[in-house]
Amino acid sequence: MAFFGFKDIDKLSEVDMAIYRFIVDHDEQVPFMRVRDIAKGAHVSNSSVMRFIHKIGYSSFPEFKVSFKNESQDLMRSKSDVLKIITRDAFPNDIEKTIKLVAHLMLDADNIIFFGMGGSGAIAEYASRQASSLGFNSFAVKDPFYPLIQQLRNTSNNVIITLSVSGKTNEIIETLNNFVNSADTIMASITGNVESPIARMGRYALTYNIPETRIHKYYDLTSQVPCVYIIDGLLMELHNQDVDRQMP
């Protein structure tokens, strides 16, 4: 039996759900409550509370309280530090300066391309959408075989911002090689590896330091929160510079 893992929520009545929500919202107090305390808090009868206890699989209220307390403590232990994903130490000391420099490049660019694969590709879409909302011509590329060199052949003043946790993805490196000596395209990167090829290929590298996590060898579960953090800071700085430029 598990209260928080109860699977038949759809079978609970409105009265049952009122009791369930009250218990969830007062999980620290429930182990010390009586039946009538829960009934009063959920605005139901004592008998409704007992019917609920039986319905979710417990034979008595004391059995429920002991089980609930143990389950709640287990959850608290498993949730410890779950939101402490990043701190300021995850970024280099000059990250704000580099953000300002990259934003300045984006400010006058004719095309802003966010380039990434997998999870980084999803963030690239987010970044390009936000940049477009700010009034800049931006699009995302998630496919390393996308004909980007052909699309930008007759353009100038382009900025490509590559997103890559490892900074070592071969397919991305092959695409970026087409722009290394381009006078019309400036490259920057957001990566978790300052020494990586992708970081070294661009003019600027916005870097962060976070442990890389993989499962089953190929699946990357490394947090993308630092990347999103940098993206939001970059877009905010871009917006601020745009506003400052338009001021008389």
From TrEMBL:
InterPro entries membership: Homeodomain-like_sf (IPR009057), HTH_RpiR (IPR000281), RpiR-like (IPR047640), RpiR-like_SIS (IPR035472), SIS_dom (IPR001347), SIS_dom_sf (IPR046348), WH-like_DNA-bd_sf (IPR036388)
CDD domains reported in the protein's UniProt record: SIS_RpiR
Protein name: MurR/RpiR family transcriptional regulator
Molecular function per GO: carbohydrate derivative binding; DNA binding; DNA-binding transcription factor activity
PANTHER family: GLUCOKINASE (PTHR30514), HTH-TYPE TRANSCRIPTIONAL REGULATOR HEXR-RELATED (PTHR30514:SF1)
HTH rpiR-type domain residues: 1-75
Gene3D superfamilies: Glucose-6-phosphate isomerase like protein, domain 1 (3.40.50.10490), Winged helix-like DNA-binding domain superfamily/Winged helix DNA-binding domain (1.10.10.10)
Sequence ranges assigned to domain SIS in this UniProt record: 102-244
A family per Pfam: SIS
Lineage of source species: Bacteria, Bacillati, Bacillota, Bacilli, Lactobacillales
Alphabetic keyword roster: DNA-binding, Transcription, Transcription regulation
Keyword Protein biosynthesis attributed: no
PROSITE patterns (UniProt xref): HTH_RPIR, SIS
